[in-house]
Every structure is written in C-alpha cells, then in structure tokens.
Amino acid sequence: MALITADRERFPDTPWQLVETHHEPGNAGTLETLFALGNGHLGIRGAHWAASDAELPGSFINGLHEIWDIKHAENAFGFARTGQRIIYIPDANNFTVIIDGETLSLAESDVLDYRRAVDFATGIYECRVTWHCRSGATVTTTERRAVGFASRGSLGISLEVASDREISADVTSSVINRQDQPVEDHSAHDPRRAGRHAGRVLLPVRTDGGDGSLRLSWQAAESGQRVGMAVDHWTSTGQQCFETVAGEDDSSVRYVLAVRAGEPFRLEKSVSYAAGRGVQDSEHDAAETAEAGLRPVEDIFTESREHYREYWATSDIVVGGQPQLQQAIRWNLFQLAQATARADVAGIPAKGVTGSGYEGHYFWDQEVYLLPYLTYTNPDAARQVLEFRHDMLPAAKIRAKELSVDGALFPWRTINGLEASAYYAAGTAQFHIAAAIAFATSRYMWATGDEAFREGMGAELLIETARMWASLGFFGKDGLFHIHGVTGPDEYTAVVNDNLYTNVMARFNLSAAAAVEHPAIDDAERQLWVQAANRMQLPFDEDLEVYSQDNDFMTLEPWDWTTPRSKYPLLLHFHPLVIYRHQVLKQADTVLAMFLQWQDFTAEEKRRAFDFYDPITTGDSTLSACVQGIMAAEVGHPEAALDHFTNAAFIDLDDTHGNTIDGVHIASTGGVWSSLVCGFAGLRDQGHMPFFDPRLPAEWDSLTFHLKVRGRLLRVELDAGALTLSVRSGGPLDVDVRGRILRVGPEPLRVVLEPFECPEPTVFPGGPPTASLPVVHALG
Predict the structure, then answer these.
(1) Cβ atoms within 10 A of the Cβ of 524, count?
(2) Beta-strand relationship, 154-163 and 59-69
(3) Model-level pTM greater than 0.90?
(4) Do 304 and 149 form a contact (C-beta atoms < 8 A)?
(5) Which candidate in 268, 291, 491, 634 is catalytic?
(6) Residue range 337-396, pLDDT digits in tens
C-alpha cells in the first residue's frame, strides 16, 4: 500500500523537500521516520510536539545501548550470551501549548492550515499549523528543528506562537525519558522490531534545574553507559519562566504570558547531549560534558545549512526528466548523510539513528551497502567505519576461538563487538560478514590510495579474516576447497555447504590477503591462501548451466508461488524449516556475488543466473531490490532494472515492507546510490582502473553525479548517447569505458556509446508447484 506516491496532493513531489500539506490520522509513526533528523551520532524522530499527536516519538545516540543476558530455551556451547539494544535517550522534542485554556492538538483542535517539511538542502524541519481556537482566536504555531554537525551532540528547536488577537498562552517545554515508559513489546510478533527491557534501564545520576535550564544525566543499569544532557531556553520577549521542574523521567520548563497580535512569542530550546567514550572515561558528570556543547539555536540552524551546502555540492545525483524520482533519490541521499555524517569511529546501525528497529545493531549492511557510498563521497568517514571494525579485532579473535577457527570472526549483529544474534542459523552461520569487511577494506584502499591504512589496519583486517577462512574450510577428496555449514545472504536457505556467495567472497578475501606484503605472513601461510582461493568449490548445475546457490539448492522442492501475498514476508508466516527446504529466496545471493566479483564471471553466466534467480526471489528483504536492479541493468533487462530501482527508491517513502515505523532502511538507501552509480552508470571498481559500462533507462534524459577517486573529484554525466567525464579537482585519471582506456582531465571528455543489445530472457523449465503445502493445508 503506497503512502507518499498514493496522495501527491498531500505529499507533493518537490525536488528538495519532503512536504506534507495537510494532516490525516493514521501512519503517524511511519511519518515520524520519514521526517526524522540525524547526523550519524544523534537522531530525533519527526514526531509532532504534542504528546497526543505522536505515535512512536524518540531520540537516539548511535552506540548507546543496554545489555541483558540472553536466555536460550535450549542452550549450547558458543551461543550468543549478551543481548544489546539501542536506548531511547531522554527526548527534548515535547511541548504543551494551552491557548485561553484550550490544549492544542491535531487530534482534538480545529486546524485551519497545516504544512510541514524537511528540507534536504538545509537539514531543517519545519511544521506550521494555524488553529481556530475555541476562544475565537486564530493562532499559528511554527516549530523548527535541526541537529548540529560541527557539534554533533547539539539539537536546536524553536517554537513560535503568533495570534490575530491577544491571547493567554501557557507553554511547557519538556524532556521525557521514553526508555522507561510502559509500551507494548512489538518484537513478539515481528522479529524485525525492537523489544523492550523488563526492568528500569536509565538510572538517574543528576536531576538539576532552575531558571529555565536543565542539567540531567543517567546511567544504563547493566551496560553502565552514561548519557548527559544540558538544556537552555531563550525567549524573544525576555519572558522569565514560570516554573522549572527537574525529574528522573519528566523535566519541564513552563512559560505563562499574554501574547499580543503582531507580537509573536518565540521559545528557543538549545539541547546538548553527551555520550560515548569521552563521557565514559571522564571524571566529570555527563551533564557537565553536555553543558560545554550548548550552542545558540540559530547557530545550530546555520551549522546545518552550511553542512548541507557542502554536502550537496559533491554528493547530489541528478536524474533528468524524472521529478518524482528526483525527490525520492534526494530523500535517500539525505538519509545517507543523516546516518553517517558524524558517526565518527563507530558503526552505522541498520536503521541509522531514526528508530530502534533491529535493536540498533550493526550488520554486514554497512560494508556492502553503505561503504561504497561513503568511500566515493566521504572517504574519511569510510575510513572511520573500518577503524571501528578494526577496534573489534580483539573480541573477534576471541569469538573465532569459540567457533574453533583461527584469525578473527566478526559478530553477525552487534553494538559492542560481541555476538548478539540468538538465532545462529540466520546469524552466526553468516560467516560471509568477514569477507564483507575484507571487501570494504580492499575497496577503500583501492579508491583512496591510503598507504598508511593499507600497511596498518587494512593489512590486519585482510590477514585475520583470511586466517578464519583458511581454517573454516578444507580441501576435500576432490582436491577442491570447501566451506561447509554456513548461511549466505539469502536467509531463506540456511546452514548449507558451499554457498556460492560465501565461497566467491572468501576466495576474494584469501587472494587479497595473499597479495599483502606483511611480516605477519610467512610463505607457507601465503601458499595455503593461494591454493584455497584457486581451488575454491563453486557449485554449478550442468543441466541448467547456472551456478547453484549452494551444493544442494537445485535439488530442493520449488516453492508454491500461488501462496497469497498476505503470507509475505514468509518469515512471519512459515516455520524456518518449511522455508529452508524449498527453492525460494529472501534476497539476492548468487546474483549479489556476481555483482561484487564482476570480473570473475562471464556475461552469459551473469545473465543466466539473473534469469534463474530473479523470479524465485521474494524481495522480503529490503536489501534485495537494489542488487536485482543493478544486475538487471548489466545483463540487459532495462524494464526489470527500472522496476527494481523504483521499488528500492520508495521502500520507506511508501512503507512497502510495513516496518518503516521502526526507522529508515539505511542499507537500502545505500543500495539506491549503488543502483544509480553502479547500475545505470555501470561503475565497477577494484580492477586496473575505474570501469564504466552505462545503461541509462530510456525514460531518463540524463544522470549526473560526482565520485571522489584517488584524490580527484570525477564528474560523470550520462545521456542517451554518450558518457561525459571530467576531473574537477586533482590530476588526470585513467578510466575504462567499455574497454576503451581514456585519460580524463579538467576538460569534459565525451564518449559516444553504442546502443546496448538486450537479449531475450532465458526460459528455464518450470517444475511442478509444491505439493507439500496444499497437502498440509488439506490435512489441517
């Protein structure tokens, strides 16, 4: 069910904003995600300021979490022991506005006019509502908010009240500890949603307040992590506050005054949060550290404008002739900026800092779906994410020993470096996260030429992950190297032997490590890696002439594709064992391998694989549409490519997976970037030089973007008949365009492109529909 595209009067397709022109009940929580603000460290959901108008309001700090002991119904050695969950930090986005005795709310009051927007060009949220009060007054409230960037813990909020006549206004600004409010635990019905803690999480350390200022701090009961906040208020009229109350769960500053016609009352709320390593290691109270970060609200707004002016100058992607898609593209790019800009040396949660979905954990998503974007738009930030993974090496080495392998085994899902996946079949068994980290490491080094990283952290990441693969796999009687008992990206096929994606990526990892010159590698180990890579088993079905997803995938019973759409996603309606024994995919697996390791497969192998796997991929994962679209473009299926891309671009805007309420699918937004750059512009990397093989959709006039490559800023302009390249800063760059080696300099170089021949899709013999499910239903 579409949301944004279903009502373009309510949500007009403005290219630089997401706008809502009138309020309607329902979908409030989803819109809170879509209108959220963040900077990679601090995030605030786009909830309305009145409590009765919010569904799932809250604010988050990346990495601030609580822990608990995982209770397994049936225990076993090596199971994850410690759960981790992102914390709702005390939330400053709360106001109560009473006009002439009437409490204003969208749910109960008479609204004459309404408009709210988040501006991608400035990062500023604004909501303006005109109310017809019961007293006869016409009152307009305007709330604006922005997060800091130079000061990453800063939040600025202003609320203005204007009237057409004199009114009595009672305005309360609140800070609410939402983490310890009683709410429903939705995770019991949907494992993608965040759970709740049984006991109190945030223990008050300091609760001070007076004269419109608050100094508050808490400590998480089990993790011991601390968060502090400082809040100052300022009024345009110089009005002194009526009351200041500081509490452990609800703190407030109240103003009571007369507002005259033509003399608006503006309340500015400057908020500063402090959390993370500096706070944990400090002898000072966290509120004191937060106080040092307080900034005037207007300074925070200015900081946001300046940040996005610089961001869009090199990170914008422009599609000619497609205004509706242009808005969606910019919204996705805006979310990428909000999830990563000031994460610093930290991971990127699967929902960024827009919600609590997936518990705030870091997955392989960040390396495969987000690091391409970061590497080519903000390489310093990409390096910081890899530094964060490097910081996890000691814990990853311990985890490797628990799983009886050498080197380092990174956790499938984590915040603090420990494995937090309680279901090992779809968690720990996804060993391929090691190759994802190695792949992102290699891409960063290739794209930046960062020699210091290559010789230090990069080498260590490649070496320790290669050691894991060498010990996890084995040479079989056939002389080939096998990796058994793993789960690939497709979580609908678990704990298999020789998953093609895993083996292909492990092969890359082993080869990349073998090429490293480092004193920690001796000749014997290097030769072992080379032989394992050269002899890697890659399952291939000779009858279908298609690479098999694993050794047994082609023997599985086909899924019953008459299953109604109401039964998707399958993971919410069928036991895992039912899904595992059928030929059905949650997301791209073999197809993803062929995208990432593009040089290892022929055009014919890629085309047949796409034609075989695309029809049996449910798309139940938001990670799938972007990859399917990229490969559809490469193999010559333009309509499928555009369909998959459009699906990816609107996953959250239209809430197509039904869980946008819990936060933006940040990996999918990274996939949108890759779809444009790698799919339609045809970029491939980690070869001798950047390679382009464009596939511009016939419906588009053009596609334009920039890439930061080896110290240069490369401008790429694609139209129906040509690719135009120019280096905007830095020296010349050698580029391969469909086999033509070109030296690109500051003068635009136009390369004429011959039309691409689109082959007919391969038709594979269809098997009979699954018999077991109807029989089970009949017996039931």
Answers:
(1) 7
(2) unpaired
(3) yes
(4) yes
(5) 491
(6) 999 999 999 999 999 999 999 999 999 999 999 999 999 999 999 999 999 999 999 999
